[in-house]
Amino acid sequence: MFLLDYTPEQKSIKLIITTDHTATVNIYSPYSGVNKTVFVNQSVAHVDLPNSIDSIFTGFTSRGIHILSDKPISVVGFSKLYSRNCCSALAFNALPADKKGKYFKIQTLFRNSKDIQSFGIVSVYPDTSVDIKSIAQQPLTISGKTLYNHDNVTITLKQLQCYYYETNVNFDISGLEITGTKPFVVFSGNKQVDTFINLESAVESIPPTDTWGKQFIVPLIKATTIYLKIVMNNPKNVVNITGNNYFRSFTSSYKIQVELPAGSYAVTAKQSILLSVFTKYVNTSISPFMSIIPAITQFSNDYIVAGPSIFSYLHIPYRNFLSIVIDQIYASGLRMNGNVVQALEETSIPLENVNYKCMIVNLSGSSADKISHLQSNIMFGAIVYGYGYDEAYGYPAGLRL
Fold it and tell me: In 3-state terms, what secondary structure has residue 98?
């Protein structure tokens, strides 16, 4: 499911499919123009989708997409706006169907009512009953019902049917709970992020709550300011954020939003949490994006990633980056396309008895890059992101859920 960008103007919408294998990929949707079979040969395929598939409004729509491959693949959804006014892009890492869940909490960025918050639900099976519960102190109207704190509304979805919601209320709806009778998929973020100059969008595929983690390293990101967003199940949880010359502890909250200078941070919690990063608008070369931050237990040994196959606004190429987190002892064993990893920037951050190295590296662009470690038992984390002219995208390179 593609959530609505902040404007309905013409877009380019694609799937970026990467694999180390020779894979046959079948793509199906009840929405017209999506169904096709794609062959990917140990590399990447950029698959065009109808540019109207995200032109949705609050309510029900049949625009879910089912992707089935005979070999392991990674799938990223990418949307790029072509506008007379300017520019926008977003990307999300589609989670495997075997990691679908029955209980989710959404994440959004909120600073003022111009940050339009949104979420989407996609059913995997027919006749899925879904409860949506607000935890906000202020009233929130969803599916025709006004919800107060801990009120809920129930909707029923057909197979691959979606429910989309957006709001410009003047409060944070992060932490809103979504539960179902059968497994389903949730996306959330912002239809609109107010940059005070330009308007951007941000979205992520949200992991179910039973896959959350307790220890995280926020990687070094090519930005100047970031927001860390945390949601949790227990308001009595204790969350600590530690950086170079920085420490802050949080208790008694369902959600946390912290503005910080860009850098590496260690985040720990007594009970599992979901952590995302949002970048802040700086200028035409540094724009907002959202990415889930993988927990240390979700690190993998190898990733294969690729940037978008189209240009940014004014036909400017995207600058594509990978931010890597790895135990410093094993950093020399990292390889990109068989070569030693060359970092543009790097720093380190301790967590318990491990010193983690955080590195930013360039990606090739629209061709596939494979990042792996020489030792198959060494795990590391990574997020992919890129900047165009007044636009940006980002997502985790992978989540071992």
Answer: helix
